[in-house]
Amino acid sequence: MSLPEEANQSKQLEFVTLVAGGQNFCIEITQIREIRRWSPVTILPHSPSHVLGVINLRGAVIPIIDLAEKLGFAKIEPSERHVIIISAIEERIVGLLVESVSEILGVSPDMVRETPRNSEDPTTRATPGIIPVGDDMTKVINLAALLPDQGQVAA
Known about the structure:
By secondary structure, the protein is mostly beta strands. The protein has four helices and eleven strands; from the N terminus they run αβββββαββββαββα.
């Protein structure tokens, strides 16, 4: 393998693909700590509707967010077939309830296209890119834009 070929491979971006609200999304693999099966949460009073509650993960209290509802889709009714993606957003750790996790997608940076902008609502800013995959489009989620730091649990 020649040096330029190695340098080109190191620039490849890796995403974990998932389904939320019946749509294909992906999150940079560097933001994901672990993927776990759904387990019941402790509900917190007066929390936003997209915050399902919290779980105790090895001594840490982690808020669980319904990603579909946060993105403006119908709320997910959690069952044992759903998964929670434990993600690191800057200094915060949150769990994202999704319908399923599919695969790891490796793409070159030039494959990520900018999302067309109709408005600048928070959900639009939270999906800055789209990756064409076959006949489908996988939307890249910017977790920091989707879940700005508004307090520990009110994510």
